[in-house]
Each structure stands twice: as C-alpha cells, then as structure tokens.
What we know:
Belongs to the nucleosome assembly protein (NAP) family. By secondary structure, this protein is an alpha+beta fold.
Amino acid sequence: MEANKGKGEQGMQIPGGQMDRPVSFHFMESMLPKVVKRRVHALKRLQVQCAHIEAKFYEEVHELERKYAALYQPMFEKRRDVVTGTVEPTDAECEWHSEREEEEELAEQVKEKASIEDAKKEEAKPEEDPKGIPEFWLTIFKSVDMLSDMLQEHDEAILKHLKDIQVKFSEPGQPMSFTLEFHFEPNGYFNNAVLTKVYKMKSEPDATEPFSFEGPEIIDCEGCQIDWHKGKDVTVKTIKKKQKHKGRGTVRTVTKQVPNDSFFNFFNPIKASPEGEMDEDSEFTLATDFEIGHFFRERIVPRAVLYFTGEALEDDESFEEEEMEEGDEEEQDDEGDDDDDDEGDTNKEQPQPAECKQQ
Length: 359
C-alpha cells in the first residue's frame, strides 16, 4: 500500500525568490547550484541510513511489546473469566471509586427505593442472576462505529458466544506479525473454538521510496477456514432464479449460493497483490481491513471494559473533535489570508462555496 503517496509534491520556496504555486522537489533540486546539489545528495544518503536505524528501533519495540504482552496476559485471562462467569470477583476486587461517586450514590438511593417498590410487586418472581457479564463483546461491537458497520443482525446471535479476543505477537526470529484470536464457547454455528486473523508486518524502508518510511506497516493478512454447521454459514445466502430454455421455452427454478454481508467475512480477506497492482476498490477494502486489525490490537483488546461502558468512546470522540477544531481554525486562517489579498479588488469574482462531501 502506498501510504505516503503524494508526499513528493509540496509548496516550497526557491532561495532568493517566491513561487506562486507548489513545485516538485525535482524542480527544487534542479534550481540548486551543482556543488550544493552534490551536498544535498550526501544528506539524502545519511537520511536513508537514519531510516534503516529507525527500522531496527521499531523491530526492538516489537520485541518489547511481545515481552510486555506476557505480563498483561494474566490480567486478560482474569478479565475473560469474569466476563464468562467462570470466576466471581471478590468484594475487594469490585471496589471502585469513581469521580462521579456522589452522583452514583444518589442514583443508587433512587434505585434502592425503586427496588423496594418492585420487590413488593414481584415477590413471587425468582430473582435473576445473570452469569458473568452477558453480551460483553457484542456490546462493544455494537458501540464502536468501525465494528458496527461490519455487523449484521444475523451475526449478533453468534457473537453472543464470543468469550474473549487476544493478541499474540510473532516469536523472536520470526517475521514481524501479530495474530488476533477470537475465542468462542461451544455454539450451534461452527465447530471452531478459536477463529484467527494474522496480520503480517514489515519494518524496513522501501527500496524505491526510502523517505516514506514512518515505522512498521501491515503488508498483508490471512484469515482462517470456518467450519460451519450445515445451513448455518452466514457469509453466504441462497437465492432462487428462474431460467427459461431457449429452444423449448420451459422454465425451471435453480438455487445458488451468493456472498452475504457478515462480520465473519473478516476471516476471509482479499489478498494483497505481490506486484502491488490492485484496483481502487480492492486497495480501499484492504486498507480498511488493516485499520480494523490495528484498532483491535491497539484499542479494543487492551481497553475492552472502557469500550463496554462507553468511556473509551467519549475519549475517541473528544480526540476527533479536537482534531476537527484545529482543522477549522486553519481553514479560517487561510480564508482570512485570502480576504486580505482581495481587499480593494472589488471587481474580482467572489469564490463559490465548495460542495460539502460527507466522510
């Protein structure tokens, strides 16, 4: 994937004069004196050497991630046990002092009053005691936009059986990668206990574009074969189609299976082209897949409880709003500069507002 495509063209100034429009770096170099250009080439060689050192740095970071993943693992296993109801946390483990403690205490008092009234009405009804935290991961999927866009109604019943998601890093000496493991309890949809998705990575500057290196990148991914029970495969649907015989004119109805939208298509990704030549739709699909894999690894798995409660969603929204506000300020500043340039030019045609494109 050409993550840094388009970075070659930038607005620059030529020493000793101004350019009214952006120029390519090739043109910039052509304007330099020969002796200066020679020194710039020496700096570029140094820059490539820096990129290779940076690549080694990220390889060591990957090893450090792998080391600390082993330290996180016991806590993630305890999380899984609490979610599935295998383990009941102690009173001490359940103590939590919230910043909204007073509000929660008031709400608790209201709940107690309501529960007393409800208890009087429903004394005959047995008390419900759900096991673990029901629909923990499904709730997260439905709350996060990136995941809910993939989720279909027929997926929800299956994801109720999802009991854990784990991230596993490649072993020392192996090519850099990470694996997402989706652990399911026995269910009536497929035989797999674990569904996996491997994301292959590289941390080395591209030979043709070494200056585009900004750290490790995902270069490919591999899913797994799902052993569906008969008639339970939600990634396909059966359609009926009428066919008319050209000679006899008779009509027959045939059935065939066609792809169906489902989250579980996540485990059957398109493959990256070795030559790097893919159509625009395929490139977009693959880039989106890489983004989702990265999001699972960096956000969803480490902070699952905060996505379940919605607190992480608030943080994500605040970050997006902050980015948008900064972008708006830049646009306003640019517009102000244009106004200054146009001041006094009453005959200049006023610019028309650009058509808004929803992201």
